[in-house]
Amino acid sequence: MDANQFETKPQARLNKILGIKLDLTTWLVLCLVSIAAVLRLVGLSTREVHPDEWYHVLAGASWAEGQGFTFIRGIYDRAWPYTLSVGLADLWLGLEGFVAGRFPALVSGILCVWLIYVLGKRAASPAVGLIAAALLTVDHMGIEWSQSARFYTMQTACILALACLFAGPSFGAPRASPVKTAVALAAALAIALLALMLQVISILGIAGLVLFLVTRTPYFSWEFVTTPSRERTVIGILVIVGAAIGAVGFAMMWPELRTTQAWAAQDANNFLYYDDYLRAMYGVLWPLTPLAILMGLSHSRKAVFIALSVIVPVLLVQSLGGMKAPRYIMQAVPFIILLWAVGLRSGFLWLAGMIRDRIPFGDVGPGHWVSNTLALGVLAFALSGNLSFRTSAQWTIKDGIATYAGQPVLTGDPVAPAIQSASREVAGKLRSDGTMLMASDPWFQAYYGNTAHFALINPRNDDDVPLNYERKTGLVRIGNAQELAIAMACVPKADILVLNKKVGTFYLPPETMAVIEQNATPVDMENKVFSLYQWDRPEDQADQDCSVVNEELAKQV
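Now predict its structure.
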């Protein structure tokens, strides 16, 4: 039967004009992907820079110039596949700066919308895929990290692609083609490896999906468990051995799992951190997740199980872990949305059936339109009742107005004009006669490049040993007032550059500033964004043991 046999007249006309044959569902998902692209493009190049973006942007540009993944004086090879894609965007597409850095995240974020549709379609139905794609299209986290030069959307796309493969006919079908299964297995291994190279915690989503795959084998059934056989004995032994190894491995990794960097220490023991976040961002949908699971089981057990296989390990392990930030559970968010989509679809069917049974001519005419209108009303309520989707709407309106007024989409600078102006002024006042630069922010360090030798770090960000050389920047980290005093006593000259405004965790505490203000000379600045100080070591200063400082400086390239 031809899938286009039941196409509508407008749909048939559009297919004829374009010379292609697509069904209505495909047209709808293409519209959603297009909307997702617009939402993620608007404001792409002008959204305020996140400090961590500098690493991928400059290391990618360095790779494009044939100098490897270098950043300032160091090497930044964390999540190197993403940095490589930034360099390729520079070389192949002619993009540069933050547009090149954010382009791979943008493409990955758009791809996630298509992938969740495919997953919803394979695991449940095209309608579930469309609802999930619609929710992810306007999701705040999906838009935010699609406009940041970070690897989170690429990692999420990998987990979604792996789920699409596992939910497809090549795995678990009784008469699956061996060739197709082999190709799918090779693709799954490659995708899983890429996800792990982007971020090691991808192992949580991957392990969950592998467990889901196991549930599709004949070994995962009550009949197999209760029927004595040699095969059951072997599988049972393997399960016991695997569980023992897993328990030992978890015990060994527990101290590392509980490790917390200083900036996140306040949430180390908040085991409801992610529940609080999801409740705040999805105030209507998140509390209804248990109901969505129950309703979804009646519609598609497969979709519910594949969603839970990722959600449970990611939320459980990350909640027990010490390091916490919303982006660390991003790989699970599309699967949470999939659960909601299955639940909403099941609810829509129940609501539509109830209305059509009670309204004359329920299958057509008034009953048809009333049921669909109410269903859309429920979806609109689900969207408007969640901070995530309202925030996306506010951002889109603000950026859309700015774009309509002439703000560039693929050109522009995410750095505030005031900071740029102040930076140019600082550049003209830095001394170049062998003076070392101490800077208090990754942005400063990146902007002034190889001029910087020391990085002034807020104690909340400092987890290294005192005056420690950092490989990814090639700078010596100064984490507190005592370390700063030692470093100043061990260098003849230094320019010290700090940010006046307290932003995030990149400002210096009062005790560190006191060392600077008491010993260094302030430089008059027209722009008050930065403060610049000059340090000249007095000739009569007492000798200081500088072995640690000299050893760490010697590591710089």
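The radius of gyration is 28 Å.
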